[in-house]
Amino acid sequence: MSETTIGSVTTTSVLSLSRDDILSMPVDVAAFYLAIQQTDSLDKQIKDKMLGIQNKQADIAQAREYLAKMKELQANAKDKKGDCPWDKKASMMPQEMADWLDAHGVAYDRRGNDLAHNEKEWDVNIEHLNAYIQNSNSSVELDMLSIQSLMNKRNQSLEMASTIMKKSTDSKESILRNI
Length: 179
Prior knowledge:
The protein has one domain (about 5-165). It is mainly alpha-helical. The chain has four helices and two strands, in the order ββαααα. A two-stranded antiparallel sheet has the order 1-2. α2 (about 25-80) packs antiparallel against α4. A hairpin with a 2-residue loop joins β1 (about 5) and β2 (about 10).
C-alpha cells in the first residue's frame, strides 16, 4: 500500500492495495473494495468504447463527405462523355481522397493505374464507400450495445457495493444492540 504525506496528514492510496492488504481487511470491506475496483474498471472500458465510437463517427462523417464528392465527380465524368478522351481532369479523384480510402481499407477502381475515373468506375467507388459506411454504422451499433452491457454490469457492481455496505452496517448495528 502506498502512502502520501500532505502536510501532517498521511493518506493511503486504495488503488494500489496489494493482495496481502486486501486479505488483511475485514471481509465486508474487502468485498466493498473489490466491487468498487470492478466499477472503476468498467468505467474505463465504457470510456474507451465511447472514444472509439466518436472516432468511428468522425470517420463516417468524412466518408459521407467523400461520398458526396464522388457523386459530384461522377456527374462531371458523365457530362464529359462527348469530350476528348484525354481530358479527364473533371473526373480525377483527389489524391487526398485516395489516401483516405487507402488508409481506411476502402477499395476503389484502380484500372489504368491512375486516379481518373469514368462514370462506371465512379459507380464502383461509390459502391465500395457505401459498403464502408454501412459496415461502420453497424460497428457503431454493436459498440453501443456493448456499452449498454457494460453499463448494466457497472450498475450491478455499484448495487453490490451498496448492498455489502448496508448488510455490514446492519450487522454491526445488530451486534451493538445485543451488547
